[in-house]
Amino acid sequence: MKRREFIAVPAVALCLTVLPATLPAQPPADFSGRWTLDSPAIATTPAVPGTPAAAAAPGDMGSGWGSTITIAQDANRLTVEYAFFSRYDLQPPLTFIYPLDGSTGKNTVTMGRGEQVESSRAQWSGQTLVITTTFDVVDRAAGKPFTAELTRRLSLESKTMLIVEVTRAGVLGGPASTTRSIYRRS
Hints:
Strand order of the largest sheet: 4-3-2-1-10-9-8-7-6-5
Number of helices: 1
Number of strands: 10
Radius of gyration: 22 Å
Structural class: mainly beta
Protein backbone atom coordinates (compact mmCIF):
# COMPACT_ATOMS: atom_id res chain seq x y z
CA MET A 1 0.00 0.00 0.00
CA LYS A 2 2.81 2.40 0.78
CA ARG A 3 4.28 2.00 -2.71
CA ARG A 4 1.00 3.19 -4.32
CA GLU A 5 0.81 6.23 -2.04
CA PHE A 6 4.39 7.12 -2.94
CA ILE A 7 3.58 7.04 -6.69
CA ALA A 8 0.24 8.88 -6.32
CA VAL A 9 1.71 11.95 -4.60
CA PRO A 10 4.09 12.90 -7.47
CA ALA A 11 1.34 12.20 -10.03
CA VAL A 12 -1.08 14.58 -8.25
CA ALA A 13 1.63 17.22 -7.93
CA LEU A 14 2.39 16.91 -11.65
CA CYS A 15 -1.31 17.34 -12.54
CA LEU A 16 -1.60 20.44 -10.36
CA THR A 17 1.35 22.11 -12.09
CA VAL A 18 0.47 21.12 -15.68
CA LEU A 19 -3.31 21.57 -15.69
CA PRO A 20 -3.44 25.33 -15.03
CA ALA A 21 -1.15 25.92 -18.00
CA THR A 22 -3.38 23.89 -20.32
CA LEU A 23 -6.73 25.44 -19.40
CA PRO A 24 -8.07 27.58 -22.25
CA ALA A 25 -7.89 31.35 -21.79
CA GLN A 26 -11.14 33.18 -21.22
CA PRO A 27 -12.38 34.55 -24.56
CA PRO A 28 -12.36 38.34 -24.87
CA ALA A 29 -15.53 40.26 -24.08
CA ASP A 30 -17.97 40.59 -26.97
CA PHE A 31 -19.34 44.13 -27.31
CA SER A 32 -21.51 43.33 -30.35
CA GLY A 33 -24.99 44.80 -30.34
CA ARG A 34 -26.96 48.00 -30.37
CA TRP A 35 -26.36 50.17 -27.31
CA THR A 36 -28.21 53.25 -26.04
CA LEU A 37 -26.76 55.80 -23.65
CA ASP A 38 -28.36 55.15 -20.26
CA SER A 39 -26.96 58.03 -18.28
CA PRO A 40 -25.07 61.19 -19.06
CA ALA A 41 -21.32 60.94 -18.85
CA ILE A 42 -19.90 61.31 -15.38
CA ALA A 43 -16.64 63.19 -15.06
CA THR A 44 -14.45 60.92 -12.96
CA THR A 45 -11.62 63.41 -12.81
CA PRO A 46 -12.31 67.08 -12.16
CA ALA A 47 -11.80 69.53 -15.01
CA VAL A 48 -10.28 72.01 -12.54
CA PRO A 49 -7.93 70.69 -9.84
CA GLY A 50 -9.48 70.99 -6.41
CA THR A 51 -13.10 70.80 -7.62
CA PRO A 52 -15.25 67.70 -7.22
CA ALA A 53 -16.04 65.42 -10.13
CA ALA A 54 -19.62 65.87 -11.35
CA ALA A 55 -22.06 64.86 -14.04
CA ALA A 56 -20.98 66.13 -17.40
CA ALA A 57 -22.68 69.26 -18.62
CA PRO A 58 -24.89 69.19 -21.72
CA GLY A 59 -22.62 69.24 -24.73
CA ASP A 60 -19.82 67.42 -22.89
CA MET A 61 -18.12 64.94 -25.19
CA GLY A 62 -18.80 61.91 -22.98
CA SER A 63 -17.76 58.80 -24.93
CA GLY A 64 -17.20 60.82 -28.11
CA TRP A 65 -19.66 58.49 -29.81
CA GLY A 66 -23.39 58.92 -30.27
CA SER A 67 -26.20 58.31 -27.83
CA THR A 68 -27.06 55.14 -29.77
CA ILE A 69 -24.21 53.06 -31.16
CA THR A 70 -24.02 49.78 -33.02
CA ILE A 71 -20.96 47.61 -32.43
CA ALA A 72 -19.92 44.66 -34.59
CA GLN A 73 -17.03 42.54 -33.41
CA ASP A 74 -15.16 39.53 -34.72
CA ALA A 75 -11.72 38.11 -33.96
CA ASN A 76 -10.00 40.70 -36.18
CA ARG A 77 -11.77 43.99 -35.61
CA LEU A 78 -14.30 46.06 -33.71
CA THR A 79 -16.58 48.36 -35.71
CA VAL A 80 -18.51 51.20 -34.07
CA GLU A 81 -21.23 52.96 -36.02
CA TYR A 82 -23.58 55.78 -35.07
CA ALA A 83 -25.72 58.44 -36.70
CA PHE A 84 -24.22 61.89 -36.31
CA PHE A 85 -26.26 63.73 -38.91
CA SER A 86 -30.05 63.90 -39.15
CA ARG A 87 -31.77 61.92 -41.89
CA TYR A 88 -32.42 65.18 -43.73
CA ASP A 89 -28.67 65.72 -44.13
CA LEU A 90 -28.52 62.60 -46.33
CA GLN A 91 -25.20 61.59 -44.77
CA PRO A 92 -24.24 58.03 -43.86
CA PRO A 93 -23.58 57.12 -40.23
CA LEU A 94 -20.06 57.57 -38.91
CA THR A 95 -18.15 54.29 -38.86
CA PHE A 96 -14.93 53.59 -36.98
CA ILE A 97 -12.98 50.34 -37.43
CA TYR A 98 -10.41 49.27 -34.85
CA PRO A 99 -8.12 46.30 -35.64
CA LEU A 100 -7.88 43.84 -32.73
CA ASP A 101 -4.49 42.41 -33.75
CA GLY A 102 -2.45 45.21 -32.17
CA SER A 103 -1.84 47.03 -35.45
CA THR A 104 -2.64 50.70 -36.00
CA GLY A 105 -5.88 51.44 -37.81
CA LYS A 106 -6.82 54.71 -39.46
CA ASN A 107 -10.28 56.26 -39.62
CA THR A 108 -11.13 59.39 -41.57
CA VAL A 109 -13.89 61.75 -40.45
CA THR A 110 -15.06 64.34 -42.95
CA MET A 111 -17.02 67.28 -41.58
CA GLY A 112 -16.58 70.93 -40.84
CA ARG A 113 -13.25 72.08 -42.20
CA GLY A 114 -12.38 68.89 -44.03
CA GLU A 115 -10.91 65.52 -43.26
CA GLN A 116 -9.50 64.50 -39.94
CA VAL A 117 -7.48 61.29 -39.84
CA GLU A 118 -7.42 59.39 -36.57
CA SER A 119 -4.88 56.66 -35.81
CA SER A 120 -5.98 54.06 -33.29
CA ARG A 121 -4.49 51.02 -31.62
CA ALA A 122 -6.63 48.57 -29.65
CA GLN A 123 -5.37 46.07 -27.12
CA TRP A 124 -6.93 43.84 -24.52
CA SER A 125 -6.29 44.31 -20.83
CA GLY A 126 -8.10 41.30 -19.38
CA GLN A 127 -11.76 41.74 -20.38
CA THR A 128 -11.34 45.47 -21.06
CA LEU A 129 -10.62 46.73 -24.57
CA VAL A 130 -8.33 49.77 -24.51
CA ILE A 131 -8.42 51.90 -27.67
CA THR A 132 -5.84 54.69 -27.86
CA THR A 133 -6.52 57.26 -30.59
CA THR A 134 -4.33 60.14 -31.73
CA PHE A 135 -5.13 62.90 -34.20
CA ASP A 136 -3.56 66.16 -35.30
CA VAL A 137 -5.13 69.46 -34.30
CA VAL A 138 -4.04 73.00 -35.15
CA ASP A 139 -3.60 75.47 -32.33
CA ARG A 140 -5.25 78.43 -34.04
CA ALA A 141 -3.69 81.00 -31.71
CA ALA A 142 -0.13 79.79 -32.36
CA GLY A 143 -0.80 78.42 -35.84
CA LYS A 144 1.07 75.25 -34.96
CA PRO A 145 -0.17 71.66 -35.11
CA PHE A 146 -0.07 69.32 -32.14
CA THR A 147 -1.18 65.76 -31.55
CA ALA A 148 -4.15 65.12 -29.28
CA GLU A 149 -4.74 61.75 -27.63
CA LEU A 150 -7.75 60.03 -26.15
CA THR A 151 -8.08 56.60 -24.63
CA ARG A 152 -11.35 54.65 -24.50
CA ARG A 153 -11.75 51.69 -22.16
CA LEU A 154 -14.67 49.44 -23.04
CA SER A 155 -15.90 46.90 -20.52
CA LEU A 156 -19.08 44.99 -19.81
CA GLU A 157 -20.61 45.47 -16.38
CA SER A 158 -23.12 42.78 -17.39
CA LYS A 159 -24.47 41.37 -20.66
CA THR A 160 -26.74 44.41 -20.94
CA MET A 161 -24.47 47.19 -19.61
CA LEU A 162 -21.48 48.63 -21.50
CA ILE A 163 -19.12 51.03 -19.76
CA VAL A 164 -17.09 53.43 -21.94
CA GLU A 165 -14.49 55.36 -19.97
CA VAL A 166 -12.69 58.05 -21.96
CA THR A 167 -9.52 59.85 -20.90
CA ARG A 168 -8.59 62.91 -22.93
CA ALA A 169 -4.97 63.96 -22.52
CA GLY A 170 -4.44 67.54 -21.45
CA VAL A 171 -4.24 69.92 -24.40
CA LEU A 172 -1.97 72.97 -24.56
CA GLY A 173 -0.87 72.47 -20.97
CA GLY A 174 -4.36 71.81 -19.61
CA PRO A 175 -5.22 68.92 -17.31
CA ALA A 176 -6.36 65.54 -18.56
CA SER A 177 -10.02 64.65 -18.05
CA THR A 178 -11.86 61.35 -17.76
CA THR A 179 -15.55 60.66 -18.32
CA ARG A 180 -17.54 57.47 -17.85
CA SER A 181 -20.60 56.73 -19.99
CA ILE A 182 -23.03 53.86 -19.41
CA TYR A 183 -24.81 52.25 -22.36
CA ARG A 184 -27.62 49.69 -22.15
CA ARG A 185 -28.22 47.00 -24.77
CA SER A 186 -31.20 48.01 -26.92
